[in-house]
């Protein structure tokens, strides 16, 4: 946590993840969050960091993520 990018990624996954058990695809996260001015590579790094820290987890594959309650 702490960064606005991490917050944006988490918010995106929280919001869109409610619509599917399989979570949100990385490309969907990137397209949503990049509208807030973040680069795709920064977003992918944030997703990796959040996953490593246990805030989000991959579901059906390594490209779909769900928020860890």
Question: What's the helix and strand layout?
Answer:
Elements: H1 4-17, E1 24-25, H2 26-34, H3 40-52, E2 56-58, E3 64-67
Antiparallel strand pairs: 1-3, 2-3
Helix pairs in contact: 1-2, 1-3, 2-3
A few lines on this structure:
The chain is α+β, with helices and mostly antiparallel strands and 69 residues long.
Describe the structure.
With 69 residues, the chain is of the alpha+beta class. Helices cover 52% and strands 13% of the residues. The chain has three helices and three strands, in the order αβααββ. It has helices at residues 4-17, 26-34, 40-52, and strands at residues 24-25, 56-58, 64-67. Strands 1-3-2 form a three-stranded antiparallel β-sheet. The longest helix has 14 residues, at 4-17. The two termini are 14 Å apart.
Residues in helix, %: 40-55%
> Radius of gyration over alpha carbons?
10 Å
Quaternary = single chain
Which sequence of strands runs across the widest sheet?
A: 1-3-2
Largest sheet: 3 strands, antiparallel
**Which shape, going by the Cα principal axes?**
globular
What average pLDDT do the residues reach? 94
Specify the structural class: alpha+beta
Number of strands: 3
Q: What's the order of the H and E elements?
A: HEHHEE
Number of helices, counting only DSSP H or I runs of 4 residues or more? 3
Unreliably modeled segments = none
Our measurement of the CA-to-CA distance between the termini, rounded to an integer number of angstroms, reads: 14 Å
Our estimate of the beta-strand percent is 5-15%
């Amino acid at each position: 946590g702490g960064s606005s990018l991490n917050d944006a990624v988490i918010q995106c996954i929280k919001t869109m993840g409610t619509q599917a058990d399989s979570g949100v695809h990385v490309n969907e996260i990137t397209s949503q969050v990049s509208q807030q001015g973040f680069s795709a590579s920064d977003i992918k790094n944030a997703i990796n960091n959040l996953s490593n820290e246990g805030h989000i987890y991959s579901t059906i594959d390594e490209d779909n993520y769900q928020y860890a309650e």
